Amino acid sequence: MRNKHIVVVLLIVLVCGCTSTEKIDHAVSNALIEIASKDGFKPYKGNPVITMGPEGSFDAGALGSMTIIQVKGVFHIYYEAWGVRSKKEWDAAEYETLQIGHATSTDGINWTKDPNNPVLKLGSKSEWDETGVWDPYVIYEDGLFKMWYGGGGGRKPNIGWAYAESKDGSSFTKKGLIGTNNRSEVEDVHVVHDRTEGLYYLYYWHGNEDVEHLYCVTSPTEKGFDFSESVKVDIAGDNSFWCKFGHVLKNEEGWHLFYSNYIAPHGKNSIVRYATSEDGINWQAKNKSLIYGLDADVLQVSSDLYMMAYAPENHFDKKDADIRIALYNGKLSELPGKPPQVDSIAPSSITGKSFHVDLGEEGAFNMTFQQDGEVVMRELDNNIDPWRFNGFYVQQGDSIFIQGESMMGLAGIYDGKELHLQLRGNSE
Q1: Is the pTM of this model over 0.70?
Q2: CATH class of 354-426
Q3: What is the dihedral of CA 173, 9, 66, 247, to 10 degrees?
Q4: CATH number, domain 14-337
């Protein structure tokens, strides 16, 4: 979950190739294949599969940051849940309702929430995680459900990352903060245990403005990470200002990354994308138009059947965000050649151009209009700590409309040479 000052985070998840600890029933597999697509991930027509609870419940506000796993023929989704979420961009009291929920399914379609929810509660008064627990990532091995999660936020800083265990997947015991030099301002930690190397890989996004980027750190144990030894992770071929919501799956075909571009505050025009790697550190974007959505986590159900759990586009941390699934029947190595499932944004006359724009009291900015409808903005009148952020733009003839960040909405005219913009009210 989110510290007030951290709007963005990309964290990549590495999941070992044997995510399925036991094959599901043959009839269930066939039923899922029937509704899956051979042309890439296809959203399930009955979405959403998990929704907010009734008013007053622990998950009445919004859902997100999910993990999907399969254990002994049962599907599990772990997710962060807001007890309250209004349309406010920032409210400490709302952030401090964050706890972790759990739901199960025997067919991957019909889901039942755990009666023991929330399965991981916020800490007691004076404990480090008393102001919320969030962003769960779970693997199952050696008879244990192992969870890494974040805590803090709200009135307090985002404190760091911790570890918990459960034998039944429902009752978790907190095991404390992990590693050394445990960083605050970090989100979306994801972990894989590569038994061939004897290492746990932990991927995270550090949201500090000086080092905003994706990193990876390893450890021989669940808690032994030294964050000072982290290495930077890049995705070549994708110039999005922020790549977020990543999930890496390593199987017999190699390393596969699912992620989304991210435009604050809620992921407007976020699209689940695909990249590959030979080492899990250096990535190459292969398909940037899988489906509209974000927070995607991918499970290999069987040899050529994959299930994606994700949140709808423009719903990051937003009131009423739910959980959806998409299915693909095929090899991941074939995804680069699959037809796009989203409408491509054609280059416009302003694409690729940069402008200096003076917005009076709001400041002066450099604006670069990129492909895929993104505009990257950098504050010019702050030489000490210039603020960089991004937005989403639409061009209709000569008219330009911009939304994004905590910036107010902008509208104006591009006459082929100059860009003239004015504030037009707060964008939601």
Answers
A1: yes
A2: mainly beta
A3: -110
A4: 2.115.10.20
